[in-house]
Amino acid sequence: GEGGAEGRAGGYGFQLTFFRVRTRIGEDNPSRFAPRQLILAHAAIADPSIGRLRHAERSARAYPGLVEAGEGRTSVRGEDWFLEGGDTVLGPYRTNIETDEFGFELVF
User: Fold this and answer.
1) How far, in Å, CA of 41 to CA of 9, rounded?
2) Which domains does the chain have, with CATH numbers?
3) How far is it, in rounded angstroms, from Cα 25 to Cα 12?
4) How does strand 81-88 pair with strand 74-78?
5) DSSP 3-state of 34
6) Edge to edge, what strands does the sheet with 10-22 contain?
7) Average confidence (pLDDT) over 17-35
8) Alpha carbon of 38 to those of 50, 53, 81: distances in Å?
9) Comparing C-alpha atoms, which of 56, 20, 14 is closest to residue 35?
10) Residue 107 vs residues 1, 17, 59, 88: alpha-carbon distances, Å
11) Is it the case that residue 43 has pLDDT exceeding 70?
12) pLDDT band per the 50, 70, 90 thresholds, residue 9
């Protein structure tokens, strides 16, 4: 998702992107640790108070309950980062992102 929000220092812009990638590695391996799918995430916030873009990335192999992407509705989690919701086409969606440099919790 992308968008904007108002804060103490004025307008902020944000971007949050999750990708699920099927690796085809470990297809025949019964271990739940086999890297059959990866979840990649990128989060950014445009902060006018510092005049630059802050961003962070995460990647991990899919692991139920910790790193996963649902089917049929928006539900993706990369450890403590998540995006969920969208029970209708218009939302609402809920996300929470925390990094060493920035964080945001949004409902849109």
Assistant:
1) 27
2) 2-107 (2.40.370.10)
3) 40
4) antiparallel
5) coil
6) 2-7, 10-22, 37-47, 52-61
7) 90
8) 33, 26, 15
9) 20
10) 11, 15, 24, 14
11) yes
12) very low
What the block records as the tokens of 3 is 């968008």
Return the structure tokens found at 78.
Answer: 């990369």
Q: Counting beta carbons within 10 angstroms of the beta carbon of residue 81, is it exposed (0 to 12), middle (13 to 18) or buried (19 or more)?
A: buried
CA–CA separation, 89 and 41 (whole Å): 22
Maximal C-alpha separation, the chain: 53
**pLDDT tens per residue across span 47-98:** 888 889 999 999 999 988 899 998 888 899 999 999 999 777 777 999 999 9
Distance CA 108, CA 86 (A): 9
Is 19 strand, coil or helix?
strand
